[in-house]
Amino acid sequence: MLMPRQKTPDLSVDTVAHGRFDLATDGAERFTLIVVYRGLHCPICATYLGELEALAGEFEERGVKTVALCSDDRDRTAQMADKIGAEDLRFGYGLPLDVAREWGLYISTGRGRTSIGIEEPDLFPEPGMFLVRPDRTLYFASVQTMPFVRPPIKGLLGAIDFAVEKDYPARGEYDGAV
Fold it and tell me: Do the Cβ atoms of 94 and 15 come closer than 8 Å?
């Protein structure tokens, strides 16, 4: 299980238009925001990623680099990036499912065509969002078993402002007896 204030697992994938993403060398000033999405087949993901793309510049102004990752291949990932008009948001592809599991993500089985007529992969990760400090320690995590009701992107900006201003520590770090 991922723990706040502890080092995250390795994470390195190719991106559609920005070379290789490697968390160890990402170079974010304050945080790297990693958003794992289900894939091209998910219309909710497209809407969510569109919101993230629209605010990517505001994250950058705060010293936060953004990346969206999925287990889809390059072609499907490029289609998603095109669908949302990505310019600033990096899109990584080919996230290995064993790595997704290391990050605490849930894995689902494909169930055929979705409501938008796109075939689900045989296996794919459910959504997750992670804020990781430059030293690769986990600051914030949200993982889901379903595509619905994700953390609001705009609200995350305010949370980052608060955390930076107050030097607020990552919470949930206790792993002793209860």
Answer: no
Burial class (CB in 10 A: 0-12, 13-18, 19+), 137: middle
pLDDT at 171: 97
In a domain, 178, yes or no: no
Alpha carbon distance 168, 158 (integer Å)? 13
Residue with tokens 């889901």: 144
The pLDDT assigned to 16 comes to 98
Per the structure, how many domains does the chain have?
1
The residue segments making up the domain with residue 157 are 12-166
| Tokens read off for 99 | 């790595």
CA distance 4 to 134: 14
DSSP-derived secondary structure letter, 119: B
Helix then strand count (H, E) for the chain reads: 4, 9
**CATH number of domain containing 73:** 3.40.30.10
Q: What is the pLDDT of residue 178?
A: 96
pTM of the model: 0.97
Overall average pLDDT of the 74-98 stretch: 98
Kindly state the DSSP code that residue 127 receives in the 8-state scheme.
P
* β-strand pairing of 123-125 with 107-109: antiparallel
